[in-house]
Every structure is written in structure tokens, then in C-alpha cells.
Amino acid sequence: MTEIGELEGKKVVLTAHAIERLVERMAKLNKGQVPKEPEKIALKMFPQTEEEMLPPLGRLRRLLNHKGEDARYFIYEGWRFVLVERADHYDVVTIERDMFAFQKDHSPA
């Protein structure tokens, strides 16, 4: 696991799943080109994120879909880092596209 930052005195680390999802999603956006060093990309993006508060219904839906595991959400330029708190660190469990921002950025003019 790769450390990409700190939050409230705890390390923030990337899980293998988060790296896989980042690679998969970046490849879709870049005509199949896979990023060579996804960990470095995440390392550059995460410090620039801002915490995002999901609407109550969205939070509830995510809680139900993820076996009651609460998460925190951090966003940077259309990329959402999903963090789950552990005893001594935070895991980035996935990195996803913020579909609203993505649609807004790619809608026909």
C-alpha cells in the first residue's frame, strides 16, 4: 500500500483496489492508454482534494451498498477519493469519477 497523504494525524494509503479502479477509469478517458505510474498521479491529486458532503440519500445508498461501512469523500477536478477510517490510518478504497462534474465538463455546448 502506498501512502499518499495525511488526514487528522493518520496516514492515508491507497489500496490495490483503488489503484486498479484509477487505472481502469483513466484508460477509459484516454482511449485505452493506461497510466504508467498511477500511484504518483494519486499522490499529486490527493493533497489538492477538498472534502465533499454527499446528500443524505446518497450517503444512505452508499452505506447500504457497502455493508454499513461509512466513508468520507474527497474531490479534485472530477475525481472522488473514497476513504474509510481504520484504527491507525485511512484507506482509499476507490477512486471514482464524479459523474455530475464529468457530465458538466463533457456536455455539448
Overall description:
It contains four helices and six strands, in the order ββααβαβββα. With 109 residues, the protein is α+β, with helices and mostly antiparallel strands. The protein has a single domain (2-105), classed as YaeB-like fold (2-Layer Sandwich), CATH 3.30.2310. β1 (2-7) and β2 (10-14) form a beta hairpin. Mean pLDDT is 87; it is low at 102-109.
Summarize the model shown.
By secondary structure, the protein is α+β, with helices and mostly antiparallel strands. The protein has one domain (2-105): YaeB-like fold (2-Layer Sandwich). It has 4 helices and 6 strands, in the order ββααβαβββα.
Instruction: Assign the CATH architecture.
Output: 2-Layer Sandwich
Terminal CA distance reads 41 Å
Shape descriptor = globular
Question: Remind me, CATH topology?
Answer: YaeB-like fold
How many strand elements? 6
Q: Tell me the domain tally.
A: 1
Explain the layout of strands and helices:
Blueprint: E1 2-7, E2 10-14, H1 16-29, H2 38-45, E3 50-52, H3 56-65, E4 72-76, E5 79-85, E6 89-97, H4 99-105
Parallel strand pairs: 2-6
Antiparallel strand pairs: 1-2, 3-4, 4-5, 5-6
Features:
6-stranded mixed β-sheet; alpha+beta; disordered C terminus; YaeB-like fold; 109 residues; single chain
